[in-house]
Structures are given as C-alpha cells and as structure tokens.
Amino acid sequence: MAKEIFAIFGNPVSHSKSPLMHNLAFAGLGYDACYTRHLLENGNALKETFFSLELKGINITVPHKEAAFNACDILDPFAKKIGVVNTIVARNGKLYGYNTDAPGFLKAISEFTEVKTVLFLGAGGTAQSTSSILRDEGYDVTLLNRSEGRLEKYKADGFETYTFENFQVKAYDLVINMTSAGLEDDSLPAPESILDSVIPQAKACVDVIYGKETPFLKLAKSYNKPTKDGSDMLLYQGIIAFEHFTNYAYTFDEIKPYMQRAFEL
Ligand code: NDP
After folding, report:
1. DSSP labels for 130-162?
2. Which ligand 1 atom is the nearest neighbour of the CA of 146?
3. CB 147 within 8 A of CB 159
4. d(CA 63, CA 19)
5. Is the beta carbon of 179 within 6 A of some atom in ligand 1?
6. What are the beta bridge partners of residue 142?
7. How do residues 74-113 score in pLDDT, each as one tens digit?
8. Of 129, 152, 231, 253, which is most buried with the most CB atoms under 10 A?
9. Residue 172: what pLDDT?
10. Helices first, then strands: H and E counts in the chain
C-alpha cells in the first residue's frame, strides 16, 4: 500500500480529473502515494470522514468548499480571507486549509499581458475567490450577473456590479465566462447584444469551462479574439495543491509535465 493516501471529496465526484492528474504526478516523480475519489454527501461529516479514511490530504469540489473551510484548524491567509477551501493537508493531526483555485486561475490568465480591466460574466462560487485574488493583484474587476441576489456581497465589497438590465457598456481588456452557461447546454452567459458590445473591445476572452468549446468561446473566435478555456486553471490549481500535498518537495515546473499528461490521454 502507498505510504500516503489522498482523495477528492465532492458530490458528484465521478467525473473528476483530479485522481488521474495527481496519480500521474506521484508516479512520474516517484513519490510514494496514491489518490482516490470519495463521494461525500454530508459536508458536516468532512473531518470525520477524512480521519476515518486515514488520508494525508484532500481536494474538495462542489458543494463542499465552504464546509472544508469550516473543518480546518489552520488556514492559509488567502483561504481565510475568502472563506473557501479546496485543498486540505493533515500535519500532526491538524488540518491545514488552502485555496488553490484562485492562484491557479491567476496564473492561467497571466499569459495575457497589458490587461488591467476585467469583466466577469457570473458571480457564483468560482467568481468569489478569483475576483478577490485579481483585485489583490491590481486588476480592476467588474461583475455582470443574470440575477441581482448574488451581486449583493460583491457590491458590499466595493466591486462594480451590474445585471443584464442596468449594464453600462464600456471597454474591458478581458471578458471571462465564470458561469456554468454552456457547460451542459448551448446557452450564452449573457444576452448576445451585451456580448456583441463587449467582445469586440476586448484583448482576449476566457472561459472557466474546460473540455469543450462553449458558445461563448465560439462567439469570441468569430470576432478573431485570442481565447482560452478552463484547462490551465484546472491544471494549475492541481499543481499548486500537489505542492502543498508533498510539502513543497517539487517545484511547479517539475510537477507540470507529469500532471499535464492527464489532459493528453
Ligand atoms: P455557481 O453555481 O456558484 O454559480 C453559477 C453562476 O453562473 C451564477 O452566477 C449564475 O447566475 C450563472 N449562470 C448559470 N447558468 C446561467 C445561464 N444559463 N445564463 C447566465 N448565467 C448563468 O457555479 P461555480 O462558480 O461553482 O462554477 C461556475 C463555472 O466554473 C462552472 O462552469 C464550473 O464548471 C467552472 N469551474 C471551472 C474550474 C476549472 O478549474 N476550470 C474550477 C471551478 C469551476 P445566477 O446568479 O443568475 O443564477
């Protein structure tokens, strides 16, 4: 049996690429560990389940990232600030919590240089951590969401926010689909009239959905804009989690070629 066991907790969890990504990196780097998946139905049972399965670390996906935050004994400052944890490592019986989605996303969009203003389409859980890190890094983030309700906390945090009804068209350097529109249907994340006014002015368009070309990215390509899907975000959050899991024994660039193979299979 491997010396250390890791897992992803979520509901659903069967579709997750994380076991493949981490197992390829463990094998490639010769690190004695294995990574499995666990369907967790009740977020309140996260800590108890972690210890009963004798795990060294976990990733947490929908809908348990807030329960993961509550289960931790020690929080990394950024995870503490945003209240969302997607990576936990046990050290001396204590659970250490991190958020690697946001730094993964930041690294994924860093290839687009000379970007200052960013328009987020959507204001859900993924937008929460990524808007915070982008603002910390000096980007100017505006949120446009279908419904008003989710925008309240962003407004309270000082972000500029709009619904489809009151949106004011301006130039944004990057337009990012942070919604699930296009994931399992053919819908656009905002009315086409709005997209037709912001995409032509953008330097590039990004989608957090991965593994398919969404209607949003298709539209951006029709305007000859550089585009990027969510694969690098997924890969980079995994690499950063792996750095925590292995106590920083490997650098980002050492881990990357092994984990990247999960996207080539
Ligand atoms: P949430 O459920 O927290 O939020 C969903 C958001 O999408 C809300 O703002 C919602 O608006 C909006 N939305 C949903 N459907 C539509 C639609 N048809 N038209 C317009 N707006 C819509 O989701 P998450 O933040 O957890 O996930 C968002 C996306 O990010 C998903 O597609 C997920 O797959 C992807 N993701 C990618 C990752 C990666 O590594 N690449 C990591 C994590 C997530 P409203 O408030 O009006 O309901």
Report:
1. HHHHHHHTT-EEEEEESSSGGGHHHHHTT-EEE
2. 47
3. no
4. 18
5. yes
6. 119, 160
7. 999 999 999 999 999 999 999 999 999 999 999 999 999 9
8. 129
9. 98
10. 11, 12
